[in-house]
Amino acid sequence: MVSNQGALTWNEALTGSFELRERQAASIKKTYLLLFISVASAIGGGIIGAQSPALIKFFSQWYGWVAAMIILNVVPMMAMAVRRNPVLGTLALGVDGLVAGLVLAPILYFASTYAEGVVTGALVITGAVFLAVTLVVMATKSRFSAPRGLMFGIMAGVVGAIILGFFVQMTWLSVLISLGIGVLGVVALVHATSEVLNNPEFEEPVAGALMLFGGLFNVFVAVLHLLLAFGGDD
User: Fold this and answer.
1) Under the phi-then-psi rule, with left for phi > 0, alpha for psi from -120 to 50, and beta for the rest, what region is 6?
2) In whole angstroms, what is the distance from residue 196 CA to residue 202 CA?
3) Distance between CA 74 and CA 27 in Å, rounded?
4) How would you classify residue 144: left for phi > 0, otherwise alpha for psi between -120 and 50, otherwise beta?
5) Which runs of consecutive H residues, i.e. helices, occur in 51-145?
6) pLDDT for 148-170, tens place per residue?
């Protein structure tokens, strides 16, 4: 049992269980619901971006990369500024997810064109991990167990990898790499959840969702890069 006050070590964040006040339990559930909005918006942005030649060309250039870095930093800052406003905060999270998907336009286009199944693989593994940890959080009443989140997340990643191996045109090396990154994704998400529960700065659901989305976004991008490197054409 770990006290939910103060900074956590990595070991505490991944192996501890945390007693939650009623307000905390309700807050983390709202946080994951808001996180779902960001994830859904990011998927929509990715689909739009990958099908837009203008966005693909823009974000493929150096000035597009600079613009992407600015956007990916400014929009979360704007969301944090309105985090105590339920309406504006939710809208800001949706915008954050949308622009995050849009700036991935070049890599998503390249992946879908030159490495069949890569985008699907990244979505399956990331989605499986996210859904598994979300179910654990939604089932939480008065105590959050980090090991339980890790266990369910890893199991979901294994199931996702099996599905990829049998039903998607990918090499087994790519599948194993995606599973490895999926496990890292579980670790990152559970660790971030423990941090949200123990850090007063993230008591507002909007702020917590921003932190979790940042981690999930980085995992997805890492999956894409590695799958392209090992599973695509030369």
Assistant:
1) left
2) 5
3) 25
4) beta
5) 53-60, 62-81, 86-102, 105-114, 118-139
6) 999 999 999 888 888 877 877 77
